[in-house]
Fold this protein.
Amino acid sequence: MSAGTDPLQPAHSFAQRVMRGAAFTSGGFVLSQGMRFASNLVLARLLFPEAFGLMALMTMVLTGLTMLSDTGVPQSIMQNKRGDDPDFLNTAWTLNLMRGVLLWLVACALAWPAAWLYEASELLWILPLGGLSLVMLGAAPTRVFSAQRHLQLGRIMGIELGSQLLGILAMVALAWMYQTYWALVAGVLVTGLAKLVMEWTLLSGPRNSLRWEKAAGGELLRFGGWIMLSSAFGFVLLQGDRAILGVFLTVEKLGIYNIAYFLAFFPVLMAHTMMSKLLIPSYREMFAGQNGEHDRKIRRMRMGLTGTVMALLTIMVLIGPALIDLLYDDRYAEAGPIIVMISCGQMLSLIMLTYDQSALARGDSRRFFWIVAFRATVQTGCFLAGAALAGLPGALAGQAVAAVLVYPAVAALATQTGVRDKRHDALFSALALLPIAGGLTLHWDKIAPLLP
């Protein structure tokens, strides 16, 4: 079959596919976060802070289960030389489906311990029902990952946006009628079901069936073993703050923190979304061809991504409190200074966001694990030490300190894989100090009351 007729092997050049993928990913992310933000504003008026706290706990547990059992199927399909082989794809789908069912059973088993730990009896029912979304996630067809492998992201982004819109409509309608946190749980299930149906019906490619090829299974499990360990520590990196704060804060305060986190973290989340869809295929092609032009394009993409995210974080540093005062009622006032602190804390971590994916692109999931484990360990230690010294402000400051401490290790990984850009690192390290100093000075009167 020629390149022009195979839907997974388009005639577009590498650069064209990267640019198209970046456009779809960034545009879709902005639309997705815009819909989420609008629904957040509506739901904040229909519901109460405790509802958002309960959802933060449910999301934290389900995300933890997902990451602690991550078999690395998407990454395997994107980087493996057998990534278009039907036997390999069906084995990967079978592995994912079994994992989804197992995770739902574990979510049911964790309902009572989580309800006891966080003193939230509602989790007894929220976790088993919300956990059904894990089964839907596991049943997703591998054609989703095949499209990502070949940087065909337009239809995938359309499916994600369409399912999200249906979930939001369900949440708002139920919240308006019943004013209960169950509206948020229902929205999660509607989103997951709609996404699954559209992926099976709208994406082209071979249909999956139950299959276990021993050789493919061995490759998936060897690669995925290190991915699973990496994701366990990745959970600590991305969700550890809420897991820890959920013990020390009331459900209401955790809900306020979650509102602030959503607004402050969306630029960094955009970067993570683009990296997961673009960098592994881009690095894979760069390594395969040893093409200097590909290398220069990726460096420019990295510069643009870091600069864009840092500019967005700077805006949040400057306007965070005013934004909360404008959009939310007095119950959420503390979210304003929390936005400032989260945004400042993420500035320095931007420098190394694009480096760890290079190890996965080379198929080196072991080295990827060690760097993620080191980052998670240092960040958790700094977060806990900061919380002990200065409460929530100290904990968030600890995250910034952790970014400085782990940079040498991440830079060493980038050097070994040949993707380090010293000019990029030096430039944005210096630029990050300006909004941090300005934001803390400007809003210190609002941050100081949060100190113990």
Residues 249-444 form one domain. The CA atoms of residues 233 and 373 lie 5 Å apart. The two ends are 67 Å apart (CA to CA).
